[in-house]
Amino acid sequence: KEIKKRLETLNKEFSPQLSLFSEDKLEQFNEDKELLKHRLQYLQKEEKKELNRIDEKYNLEKLHIFPLGLLYLIPESMLEE
Q1: Is residue 36 part of a domain?
Q2: Threshold 0.90, pTM exceeds
Q3: Coil, strand or helix at 3
Q4: pLDDT bracket for residue 13 (50, 70, 90)
């Protein structure tokens, strides 16, 4: 989220001022911006991979169902006739 905000800010606020930069500074600015874009793409891919790993880890391959039986033992003295 922070990288997206940063890229939006760079595009909005610095566009009019770019003509004031020297060629070297402008080149560095563009490289930094491209690096942020690539970083954002990388993080988005990693997020998807991590979510898939979590899904795979907790995915139930087989559902095991066992019959359950209960047996109540009540003394005869407690039974009403």
Answers
A1: yes
A2: no
A3: helix
A4: low
